[in-house]
Amino acid sequence: MAQSIISFLSSSQPKILGFATNIDPNKIITLTNDQRLQDNLEPLLLSDKLNQAALAKASDMFVNNYWSHTSPTGTEPWYFISQADYQYQHAGENLARDFEDSMDVVNAWMASPTHKKNILDSRFENIGVAVMNGVINGKETTLVVQMFGTLSSSQTPVLGSADFISKAYADQSSSSNLGVNISTFTASKAVSLSFIMLLLVTLGLDWFFVWQRKLVRISGKSWAHTTFFIAILIVVIIIKQGVIL
Question: Which is nearest to 92 in space by CA: 103, 106, 78?
Fold first, then answer.
């Protein structure tokens, strides 16, 4: 319901366009290297080619409307890396969506054994990150693509700087941010959480008054209230979390 209301407002108010996110690709790289340093590993060096590959992968997911390491046509992450002229010996990819903060993204990856393995893989030497806003399956979201790689011995390293990734991020943000930076995804999430919190407060007050006045309640209603309360808590946890892949 909240998504429908926000979407209607977005379509009826031309100034309410664009996205708002606190995810910064440079911060993602810094936080990733912090995790590696804590594990006594060498920090990953930024690669312009892996940045280009990550941007191409993020764009492909939006254009072809999918959320997966492999596209509906069978295109794998390694295709985008090769297309960026990064001749890899080892390569890896982490994905995330629906997050609003860089720290939350990296924490979620570190909490997952497979994603953590990529971050702490001693074979990797380079990294590239893309953060892109768009719509997948009718839902506005922010995608984060993190690519890792180690060049084959036949290719000379072409390392990048933070300037490239900042410019790519700024260009993508400016092209999708027109007017006020309000994300319908973020707004609908906030409305949904507010509504759920209101329900939790209502249930809490109901239990309090029943206990204070020592009212006798039919057992079935008590179980219904308890089940509903637990269901709401589960929904709150799900809504607050993004998704990684």
Answer: 78
**210-to-207, 232, 233 alpha-carbon distances in Å:** 5, 20, 21
Instruction: Please state the separation of Cα 112 from the chain's center in Å.
Output: 14
Write down the residue that tokens 């936080």 correspond to.
31
Which residue in the block uniquely carries the two structure tokens 């909240």? 2
pLDDT exceeding 90 applies to what percent of the chain?
50
- 221: tokens are 């209603």
The stretches of the chain forming alpha helices (DSSP H) are: 2-12, 25-38, 48-63, 77-83, 102-110, 113-119, 162-176, 184-212, 219-240
pLDDT tens figures, 75-129:
999 999 999 999 999 999 999 999 989 999 999 999 999 999 999 999 999 999 9
Is residue 59 a contact partner of residue 71, using CB atoms and an 8 Å limit? Answer: no
> Cα–Cα distance between 60 and 168 in angstroms, integer?
16
Measured CA to CA in angstroms, residue 167 lies from 25, 51, 213, 217 at distances of 11, 11, 63, 62
Residue 22: strand, helix, or coil: strand
> CA 36, CA 74: separation in Å to the nearest integer?
32
What span, in angstroms and rounded, lies between the C-alpha atoms of 115 and 38? Answer: 16
Of 137, 80, 130, the C-alpha closest to 105 is 130
Q: In whole angstroms, give the CA distance from residue 34 to residue 12.
A: 44
**β-strands 16-17, 45-46: how paired?**
unpaired
